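Reviewer comment 2.1 asked that we show a complete input and output for one of the modelled complexes. We chose the 4'-deoxy-4'-aminopyridoxal-5'-phosphate case, as it is the one discussed in the main text.
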Amino acid sequence: MKTTKRPVYFDYNATTPLHPSVFEAMRPYFVEEFGNPASLSHSYGWSANMAVEKARGQIASALHCQPKEVYFTSGATESNNLAILGLVTKLGDQGEQRGYDNSAPHLVTNQAEHKSVLEVFQFAQRRFGAEVTVIDPDRFGQVSLKSIQRAVKPNTRLISVMMANNEIGTINPIAEIGQWAKSQNILFHTDCAQSFGKLPIHVEDMAIDLLSLSGHKIYGPKGIGALFVRSENPTVELLPVLSGGTQEHGIRPGTLNVPGIVGLGAATVLALSDMNIESERLKELQKHLISGVLSQLPEASLNGHPTERLATNVSFSFRGLSADIFALGLNGLALSAGSACASGTSSPSHVLKAIGHSDRLARATVRLGLGRLTTFADIELAIDKIVEMVLKNRQISGG
Ligand code: PMP
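Response of the prediction step:
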């Protein structure tokens, strides 16, 4: 049978392959250990329940929180929805119960967030009358504490700022924002889909009240994630988005995805076991890729922060490129265009627009995600292919 060579994978910000050791940890929970963790009247249920609680503990130690503060969800999209809508609806309920008409909380977020934050804020505004301020990040995609301080009002109840951006890799000053929010009695949510397992996270030191994470960005399975919800100092209360079950204290009803949860726990342990070594290795590769492209192409620029960035992300824009980057040919590299995070849409990325790119420059953008399987040779290949593509386009467009 003829097999075609697959392109080199450079899309680790979109998803990662399941690590074989994670798969091995999950395997029994598909087959022999198939019990429902809520069936506490027999050993099938006990075994599944023990596995779920072990994973909860693994995630709690990674975040430095209590296991009971970890709620399993289907991924960061759901965690973001639950955090924001769960809080807004709870605040609305509390306002009604106390008989005052102060049920319109003010919420603050930033333009470079993932759509699963931005669109939920819009929904909260439309459906629940929340007041929303979406601040602009700076030209590196970073959110400053000052810009948040300017946006805050007396009725601000929630600030949501992602720890690291999925398109341009910029890391935000989370501890600074979290500690200030705490001093103002404002709750703080952070989307850590891209940073969990890659950067050290400490919910106490960073004063985080709500935190979203995802399994498939850290060599775990797809369709599993978690939400951290602070239980004391302060106690954060959410209303569930779904109804009809008592699982996860009723905050996230539905039979638990046991193999997924076991996989998320195993992937978390794996990520933490060599986080520093892997991050140093990737930083070297990242440096090589950035200098390799920028030194050969004057029309290339690096998107995102020059130093405060994830080691797993490189995003370049090319001035003067005339067409959609993929129409120009980057065969052999599986990477993502700057047009949108979710492929299938052709509208220019809202993140690139938020850092001031024109539609045209946003379209002339590529994102390379680096990960565990990325080698030096892969980086060399990527540099060669990108340079070749841009040079060819220069000739075609006469530049
Ligand atoms: N937030 C960020 C920053 C992301 O990168 C992603 C994944 N693209 C999500 C949220 C959504 O995560 P999930 O795929 O687990 O729903």
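The mean pLDDT is 93. We note this here for comparison with the apo prediction described in Section 3.2.
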